Amino acid sequence: MRSRTGSGVRLDRILFMVDQTICKYQNAITGLFANQKDFPDHAWVRDNVYVIHSLWALYRAYMKCAEFDEDLTKANELGLTCVKMMQSILECMMRQADKVEVFKKFQRPVDSLHAKYSVSTKNQVCGDTEWGHLQIDATSLFLLTLAQITASGLQVVRNIDEVAFIQNLVYYIETGYRTPFQDFGIWERGDKTNQGIRELNASSIGMVKAALQAMNDVGDLFGDGSRRSAIHVLPDEIEQCSAVLSSMLPRESFSKVGLP
């Protein structure tokens, strides 16, 4: 008779909790996770990336501590769920590729990528001015997670078109340290008064720096060593983000003293 070790039992217990709190509320087609209480069909980019991190961490744990074939099956299912969610978020963003091109030129908030999308259709759920969409930290968190998941052996990017768009996202975030490049931040409402006034946020700059470093270190997105899927990052932009971040800390921004 087979018996489970303590680590295996704990992993199974965590998997049950994840299934009841996360997987239960995912869309069966897109895999996206929604805020069921307040916005039933709205999928925030940041929230979904947080969900991906929890699933990916459990996937890594099962891969490391697998005792039976069933554990590898669970790990494979978790890994595929992470890939599906990442691909769905990427598809949501790619539907606004024209906005990325315009934003790189003018850096206007109305041209920024949306912060949330429809769970079922992957389209936008509100207008360009109806929400604080300019959240550089959310886009940077997505790129950071993409680099980490790719480095772990899971392939998210499937073709050259997606590679080109990821490269565009790098250009989209890399000037996050500049003063005119103020965003709404992790609060989605701008400064401390919650009046939609954009400002430079240390959390956004730090996330940009982490994302640029991760994308620079990951090598290629196909995982086969080919140059066609390599992402190019300017080292100067990383250093600029680091310098501005060091000058801002420990303040989060001009109006907010502490980090979120």
TrEMBL record:
Membrane topology: Lipid-anchor
GO BP annotations listed: glycogen metabolic process
Gene3D superfamilies in UniProt: 1.50.10.10
UniProt GO molecular function: calmodulin binding
UniProt keyword annotation of Lipoprotein present: yes
Pathway noted in the entry: Glycan biosynthesis; glycogen metabolism
InterPro entries assigned to the protein according to its UniProt record, in alphabetical order: 6-hairpin_glycosidase_sf, 6hp_glycosidase-like_sf, GH15-like, PHK_A/B_su
Family: Belongs to the phosphorylase b kinase regulatory chain family.
Protein name, entry field: Phosphorylase b kinase regulatory subunit
